[in-house]
Amino acid sequence: MKNLQSGFKSPSTRIAIIFGVVILILSIPLIAMQFTTEVKWDLSDFLVAGALLFSTGLALELVIRNLKSGTLRTIVLIVILIALFLVWAELAVGIFGTRFAGS
To answer: Where are the transmembrane segments (predicted)?
Structure first.
């Protein structure tokens, strides 16, 4: 991990990489919308998904930068990813039944 981080020392470079990955992930439903009618995202869906992915990427970067190694770092990274998946699932299909559910 040390060699990977040494190539990306600049915070602006790491943020640009996070932004690029978010755009790459969001391009999947955008491309799917061109070929099928089963994917129906509007601008607000892309904005919410982009904000969720970008904030998760920044949180992961913050944890990686501040917690050097160990079990705590792994646990915090897993908790952040589980939170992302739970929020994403709630927004998509409403697994908890909140008013933000997508179904």
So the answer is: 12-34, 46-64, 76-97
